[in-house]
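WARN no homologs supplied; continuing
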Amino acid sequence: MKEHFQLTVADILKRKHFESARVIAGEDGIHRFVKWVHVVEVTSIRNLLNGNELILSTGVAWKDNMDLFASMVKEFLENNAAGLCIEMGTYISAIPTEVIEFANEHQFPIIVFQQEVPFVQITQDIHSIIINQQYQMISDLENYSQSLNKRLLTMDRYEEILQCIFAALELQIIFRLKNLNYEFVPEISEIEQKTMVTRLGEAKIQPSEHIASAPIFLFGQEYAEVFIYSKDIPISEYDLLILDRTATALAQHLLRDRYVEEKKRVEEFEWLYGWLEGEHSLESISEYFAQNGIKTRTNEAVVLITKLIPIKEKVTQDVTYLKLLFRSVFEQNGFTVFTVEKRNEITFILVNNRAKKNFKERIKTSIETITDSEFIQKQCSAKIVIAAGNFFKSLNEVHKSYLTAKETERIQQRMNNKSLYYFYEDLHLYRLISQMSKHVNLQEYAAEYLQPVIQYDQKYNGKLLETLKAYLECNGSKQETSNKLFIVRQTLYHRLQKLENILGEDFMEHEKRVAIEFMLLVQDYLAASQPNANQTRFLKTE
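OK structure emitted
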């Protein structure tokens, strides 16, 4: 490992003012790191130390109290001091045995000067080293960053970036793309790899000073992670800064790769569009996959149509990033993704790539992750609405899923209670209404059941239609209905009596009730298809 900016107690013992100094205890700890030098002549030091300070003292604060001396040494150790240097003779003539044993046990260096020493000159000397090292660290870090940024312009593979950080630190580098195998630079044996992976897992539970990691995010999602491992000495601040710069470079390179990859997929549009139109046989689909190195575990597929509804100008600038975001999230949830872009609409063909059958749940999870992402929440210039088609078990039936996705999209546009996404299989009665509306005048059917109620509301403002909907939704519970409408029971009873007079006393009996509920859905469906019209215009008036 290249030792950058790691000043130790052993290094300081080689300095001029320590020529006559002796380590009388804790010699095994002389490799402790020193970040600063601090003169301590008081007994209260908890707020004075930040860790890794080398303490200089004459012992004047505890010269008459050896118990206090021992307590102070323990306090230095608790505050992670690097060591203690004591000037002997002026106030202290001997170090208690208890202190020496404690220091040896905890590998805490105690250094003694047998004569008066210039503390000011010692601090100036060591601080100048530390400050110069900090300047050198900043300079080296800047040089590394500039060199890496220049090389990014010509690098073809992210492995070259891993070689750069290895050359800079000479530590074991471990890299992993999400859900893929670990990569090691330099290469190590299979047994060593397994041991290393175990250590990485342990470090996530119990942090280790010999392992550091940096996640790599694309579009708010963790896409990869890079680790450094130091076998002999702890990871330094410089190592962490180099790791951070490298993670940023990797993120830029991976994003560029994904962007270029997405651009190439534009060329696939014609073939994919033919797939959606049902022009390809199962054999030609398999041949296309083989030619393009596409491997899938199953033949299960579904089509999602994503509509972009502009809320700002220049929506087209977001389309490429939206496709990248969708692809990244869906791939992490076990799908092979194909995209077809057309104006403000992106069609995604998702091929299941996992043995588990929780197809629908994984799609829901993916959509929720996408909609909760920072890009969608804060940056995207369009609102997205998603329509999912039926699930099919053969790749040459993708066109059927596409047709059902289009039908889902049409129904979605006519629904009053619009959700962010719908699955074709969940639309139930709306699918029936959509098909019937193509062949039957549903307005007449709805009018037959609901026209008298709507006419009464128009004439007397009786809110009978609202009451009817609530009463049916509450399964005939008068208490729930009155609570839902925020009206007293007596008012509800009065309205229900009016409804019985208009619809008949049997309006809550099974067959008639189902028909009324169905016509209420029809009314909402027809009204939503003409949002600028008054809903009562869909019904006949006298």
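The first strand starts at residue 22 and ends at 25.
OK
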